[in-house]
Design brief:
Radius of gyration: 18 Å
Order of helices and strands: HHEEEEEEEEHEEEEEE
Shape: globular
Largest sheet: 14 strands, antiparallel
Strand content: over 45%
Number of helices: 3
Low-confidence stretches: 1-29
Number of strands: 14
């Protein structure tokens, strides 16, 4: 679910501290996620002088489909127009992933453009093995990596929902989602608020959630850290959002330190979920 990093956008995590909840598992849990396409309108909420940003707006499209047995696919596009005061540029990130939750396999492909010119392409596959996560990168260069045990994006979504349903308000996580250069996980802390039901007129984008407009949500905040500097550093970014039990999110706030973006759900389309093939 959301940022120029897939981790914040799709969520991701594994319990790593004493008192943290065990990760969610099983087809019964995974089948609760619904296939959907969500479109979010992005606006600049705040920016420091150091950011060099005078204005910023854009759109994010997030498409999620699949099932527990066959795997989940995600197509994500994040486009923003950035005004620096002296010039304007368009940033476009396009990400495709496939995640087999059952077999713990994750493939990722991200292309980043500025003004229609390709800046970076990151492709690879990650597999969870007894001694940690192995990553085979094909771009930006071919290499094999051995990383610490981490969760993948859909697994994280299941963990967050499972913790929320159990009333666990705080847990820590290690995340790998293939973002940036696809060569490292991030450490995260997640805070889940009490479930709330929208009140008419109080929440700007609740009405665009269609059949879910009056459905209860959890307010969630996830902070992402470079793992080696977590103890003495501010998060790389922080993301807050309203989360439905079926995995849909809305009312986003993406805080990158020097600037903050908001994302309002503009349109929600439900897709046909393919039936599980598990025997």
């Amino acid at each position: 679910m959301f940022r120029p990093s897939l981790a914040a956008l799709l969520l991701a995590g594994v319990a790593t501290s004493a008192g943290a909840a065990a990760p969610a598992s099983g087809a019964a849990i995974a089948s609760g996620l619904v296939a959907h396409r969500a479109i979010y309108d992005l606006e600049l909420k705040d920016a420091t002088e150091r950011s060099g940003i005078a204005g910023m707006y854009g759109r994010m499209v997030y498409e999620f489909n699949g099932n527990y047995c066959d795997g989940f696919t995600t197509n994500f596009r994040f486009v923003t127009q950035i005004n620096t005061g002296d010039s304007t540029r368009v940033s476009d990130q396009q990400t495709k992933t496939f995640e087999n939750v059952k077999d713990r396999r994750f493939t990722f492909e991200t292309k980043s453009f500025t003004d229609d010119q390709l800046d970076k392409e990151v492709n690879g596959e990650a597999n969870d093995k007894p001694d940690g996560v192995t990553v085979d990168l094909t771009r930006p260069q071919s290499k094999e990596l051995q990383l610490a045990e981490s969760r993948f994006p859909t697994e994280h979504m299941l963990d967050v929902i499972e913790n929320a349903k159990a009333g666990r308000r705080f847990f820590e996580a290690r995340v790998f989602d293939g973002s940036d250069d696809g060569d490292k996980p991030l450490a995260t802390t997640t805070v889940v608020g009490k479930q709330i039901t929208p009140v008419a007129g109080d929440e700007a984008d609740a009405g665009n959630a269609g059949a879910f407009s009056k459905t209860a949500v959890w307010p969630v905040t996830i902070s992402y850290f470079n793992e080696n500097t977590k103890s003495d550093a501010l998060p790389v970014y922080r993301m807050s959002f309203k989360l439905y039990e079926n995995g849909i999110t809305r009312d986003l706030t993406m805080d990158y330190g020097d600037f903050v973006l908001t994302g309002r759900l503009a349109k929600l389309e439900m897709l046909d979920n393919k039936a599980d093939t598990c025997k």
